[in-house]
Structure formats: structure tokens, C-alpha cells
Amino acid sequence: MPVQLPEKVQFALKGDMISVKGPKGNLERKLHPAVKINVNDGIIVFDADQNDKKKVALQGLFRSLVDNMVTGVTKGYEKKLLLSGIGYRAETKGNSLILNVGYSNPVDFKIPDGIKVNVEKNTEISLSGIDKELLGQVAANIRGLRPPEPYKGKGIMYAGERIIRKAGKTAGKE
What local confidence, expressed as pLDDT, does residue 171 receive? Predict the structure, then answer.
């Protein structure tokens, strides 16, 4: 499946480095030697040896990665995290995110370059950036500081995530 380049996006292939520039920024990635790329009139076509399953898988992988790069530099990506629990709150200070999530001291999480953090209502964290892979990893690292627990549902969770709740102990079983 080819990737269509929008008007404002520039695609460059120098050796084994893929470079995508757009209105929101630019991204680079190293290309695997088994995958070949052809660009014609704003359409990127990926090719690999069809007899080797690993090369075909790499072809699909790099097609998705380049498509994500093109989408990132044109529209960007966003993830939302929710804090659930009594006294759980978040705030930003400079290049760090301060989280009060039930530990004795606040957790200071350093935000990497390329990710923007916005805290709304002290319990909603909105992450945005152009690199989908980096954004997902940062969101997973923040969620990993206090994952939601199944009994009361307290913790840091993705917006729209469904926590499967467990029943607690029941007294009086005879």
C-alpha cells in the first residue's frame, strides 16, 4: 500500500536515512537495508523480496513507520492520561511533570524534548508531539509510575481505558 505525501510535506532519502519535513517539524529514521523505497509524484512505494517472510514484514513495518512520520509532521499526535484517586494531582514546572499519586513524596518526571505536556483540572494530563513512538513511550512511562489497580481503580490510566474490576474479600462465607 503506498503512502500519499500531502502538499506541504517534503520527503528525502539520503543513503539509508529517511527524512520527513512538514509544518509541525521534521523526523528522521534509519531504513533497513532489506526495504527499497521508490518515490513518484508524491507517492511513496515500498518494495522487498516477496519470497522472504521477514523482508515482507519489514516492508509493512517501514510503510507504517513512514506513514506515522507523515501524519506526525502534518497533524501531530495526542494522548490523554487520567489520574484517579483521592489526592492524586499533577502539575507542570518547567521541563518536568510533578505527580502526587499516593507516594510519600511527589514524583518528578522529566519530559523529553519533542513532547508537550498540558495539565487540565489537576487530574487530566494531555501529551502531544509529532513522534508517535516517543509519545507512546512517554505516556507508558508516566502510566507505569502508578498503574491502575483492579480493586478500587486508583492510579494513572489512559483516557478511554477500561479497568477490569475485581471483587474484594467477602466476609461471612460459611
Answer: 61
Task: Determine the length of the chain.
Answer: 174
CA distances from 52 to 20, 55, 153 (A): 28, 5, 46
Is there a contact between 115 and 135 (Cβ–Cβ < 8 Å)? yes
Residues of the chain with pLDDT under 50: none
In the chain, the N- to C-terminal Cα span, in Å, equals 62
Dump strand ranges (E) for the chain.
Answer: 3-4, 10-14, 17-22, 25-30, 36-40, 43-47, 77-84, 89-93, 96-100, 107-110, 115-120, 124-129, 155-158
Beta bridge partners of 82: 124, 157
- Residues in Cβ contact with 119 at an 8 Å cutoff, skipping those fewer than 6 apart: 90, 91, 92, 97, 125, 126
pLDDT of residue 80: 92
Q: Which domains does the chain have, with CATH numbers?
A: 3-74 (3.90.930.12), 77-158 (3.90.930.12)
- What is the model's pTM? 0.81
Residues 9/16, Cβ–Cβ less than 8 Å: no
- The amino acid at 137: Q
